[in-house]
Amino acid sequence: MKNQRETEQQESVIEPQVGGPVAKKQKRKKLVKRFLLGVLCFLLIVGGGIGWGMWSSRYPERINMGTACHTEDMKDMKDMNMSDMGSMCQAGHSGSGTPIDTLQAPQTAAHIDTFTLTAQPAHLSFGSGNASDAWTFNGTSPGPTLHVRQGDLVMVHLVNHLSFGVTIHWHGMTVPNSADGVAGVTQDAVKPGQTYTYRFLAKDAGTYWYHSHQESFEQTGHGLYGMVIVTPIISTVHDDVDTALALHTWNSSPTLNGAMGTVHVSAQSGQWVRLRLVNTDNYPYHLTLVGTPFLVAALDGHDINGPTPLTAVPLSIDGGQRYDLRFHMPENGPVALLIAKDGDQQYAKAPVVLVGQGQYVSSALPSLSQNEFNFATYGQPRTDPITLQSHFDMTYTISLGFTIGFSNSRPGPVFTLNGKSFPNSPEIVVKPGQLIRLHFENNADSGIHPMHLHGHTFTVLTKNGRALAGSPVHLDTISVRPHESYDVAFYADNPGLWMLHCHNLFHANHGMDMMVVYPNISTPYTIGNASENFPD
Ligand code: C2O
Ligand code: CU
């Protein structure tokens, strides 16, 4: 820089000595030449930079997530590229360790629930002339809601009639690792014309959902998802009406169970109604119930202890999360479920769920400005297997970030975990029986990150450094907003190779994924171009 300026100064001193039209012409030529040279240099540097970024951020041909050949020490692993470790595994150790396919549910049980989900194209209409081509399970999106009883063995046959590979992940369910449905980690994506069977015990009651985990951003967005309801063996409460509702954006409009207008649910006054909601999108919504006070009965399928009635309180629901809302049907008028996009000042007039008879007067939309629901202070305290006073075997800080750069050869946004993006993100090694504490922090304005852990349910210990004051809260997806932090903890009680990622699937697609792994597990599956397994 300095040199260049000096040269320019020198030349401007020399210049007046020449003069004349020929000299001027030569000088202009020289300037043009120099300009073109500059442009060329600039392009070379930028092009080289882009090229290098694309090359260095590309996925390796094969990434093997197995740990059978890893050192178990997190210290050593921190700076190690997982793909390097993958190729080490490929180099000869892949036979050792516990094969992932052996981490299975029992072959049989007293009760078996069997389903077939066929991935197939469909043309969906959402009402009032709105329609779209979609990828579906059994021709609808959401796909069929699977109702099973707690403790049952669930068998799901996936048939693929689409022209690309798919899988099914059971979001929130603590399935054995081989049934987790993550392409390139627990199975190969199921190719067109092929079938695959998932088998797992429905361990915990509650509201769950399923979606493809091959190119999950694209495939879930295009409709490959549905809900799973696990009814408890012993219920503590009785519901007369029980309805599952999936929130999903089509043609940039929100829909509820694929409807842009009104969803009617019938209920008689005096009946208990449970609405189970999942947000299958990447961005948060706010929702509320009007017409009667309601209870937040469960979060991510797990009961809240001693829920208290709320009146038109806005609830925020982020990607992947679920709410179970309960209310007693009033004498008069319908109860309405309203939704609003994050950032909107008002609830939308549609879509809306109307429970019961009568018309809802939409001029009476409640305000969104009243204080939001805060799970950290809701319900009654109760003893819990995991508390802040528990002894934690390991504590990890995961800081959620954002940068502009390259992810998998694409220039643009990159979402990071401790400064790194998948597949170079750090991994967490847990041993069976350990109690693991995770500290999530979103220090910058890097967006909202609903962090989802596969195969485990975690207990929330703190929000912004403060212990929870209400009911114990058990989740599989925790939304970490800018400048928020949370501590969560879980027992390492389900051996395998598990993903921990943001459920804004765009963020996951752009690097925000890491692995929580148990030592000495081998997998024959790989992520990357060789297998065409791309879990996000
Ligand atoms: Cu609902 Cu890894 O996903
Ligand atoms: Cu995110």
Automatic annotation (TrEMBL):
Q: Where is the Plastocyanin-like domain?
A: 121-232, 412-519
> TM segments?
35-55
Write out the entry's keywords from A to Z: Copper, Membrane, Metal-binding, Oxidoreductase, Transmembrane, Transmembrane helix
**Can you tell which superkingdom this protein's organism belongs to?**
Bacteria
CDD domains the UniProt entry points to: CuRO_1_CumA_like, CuRO_D2_2dMcoN_like
Keyword Cell inner membrane attributed: no
Write down what this protein is called.
Metallo-oxidoreductase
- Source species of the chain: Tengunoibacter tsumagoiensis
Q: What is the lineage of its organism?
A: Bacteria, Bacillati, Chloroflexota, Ktedonobacteria, Ktedonobacterales
